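Narrative summary of target 7.
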Amino acid sequence: MVNHVLRQIPAIHELQQDKRFNELAKNYSVSKSKLTEWLQEAVADIRRGVLAELVDLENLEVVGIDDVIFSSLSERLSHHSSFKLRRVINGTGTVLHTNLGRAKLSEGAIRRVVETAFSYSNLEYNLTEGKRGSRHELIEELVQEATGAEAAMVVNNNAAAVYLVLKALAKHKEVIVSRGELVEIGGSFRVSSIMEESGAELVEVGTTNKTHLYDYEQAITEQTAMIMKVHTSNFKIIGFTKEVSIQDLQPLASQSDLILYEDLGSGALYDLRKHGVGNEPTVSEALARGVDIVTFSGDKLLGGPQAGIIAGKKKWIDQLKKHQLARVLRVDKMTLAALEATLKEYRNEETVVESLPTLQSILLSKEKVEEKTIHFQAKLSPFWQTEMRDGVSQVGGGTMPEVELPTKLILLSSQAIKAQLIHDKLRQGSPAIISRIINEKIALDFRTITFNEIDEVINRLTEIEKELS
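Modeled conformation, tokenized:
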């Protein structure tokens, strides 16, 4: 039986004459030489399966070996033609989900990216003077306007910003940091490790829960270049605690001729506290308190693209711009386009929340979330059972971990299929839908699902229903 089936496998040149071969080449825009390569792999896989008796030989003959080969070839083409970086619908309720790309860009930022990518731009060309310009100048004025800083520059993420500041301004010198602020910022990247790589020497002061001004005073030596304060945005220590404020550190740094540097991490430009959300300081507040330099992310609370923004005294920013690492860590034209458009949204405080998806999602009321869940339930077929429940969303991205945003969850289930299988099928579909499982039911938080995405979730659930019917 095995040998008989093997003899039925057509030669490659015969399969190339099949009209389906040319149709696949045309539909997937792939060369015939590459298609032939994948065809040979498909045939080889079937041959190995037959020899190892891993396939149903009788069924193979009934279905038709040619059909099986072209079905396998079609699957390979589908896999190879799909993009690795794919669109995802976020049903987790975590607004700044690091694994899902953090901040969503505004419509204005997206338009600017497309326009900039589609044509040439004055990335490093001064149109007024007709000579070479600097990409640092493109967004510096906007950062100054939004934060009150004397000067600013942008690198590719906040870890890079921290690294550049330490490398350029404190290499082979001492940097004083409280033990309670030696954070790990995700992916096992730690402030202490970044400092070690930069060549700066870490001087730890105080204890995990308590650090006093005299701890800093006693640590200062002739080798000290900087006092660094790290805003602990991704965790909170409560109870018997003590930290030294920027206001108290500023006179000490000034009289000792030291740089006072604060890594803010999340980088809020909009004050969420006036809506009763968290206690995150704004960048402008940090600068007003007297720091020389601040660093913060572009893709967290700012609501823009991945970037590390450095703002502060012109004296220090100018040094950073001239450092060789500034070129290594620089951002491209599309990042600058998105960041410029995002920063311009902050010029109008009355519309910025509605303009930036990150702020809009964080400040979305539970009642507005409920409207979306009701709309979703009304479109769902009887195949699915749903339950609306109170829940909490998170800001995410290592930002304001203590903040719980009241929300409404939909718990979805079906007697015909287990929750884990639904969860997997939603994740593996197109677009991928990321959900959670609570009490053996699929949990969807509509804080992070837009009205426009509801129909897509419904369509995917309908497809799953048909697969199981």
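Residues 372 and 378 are 10 Å apart (CA to CA).
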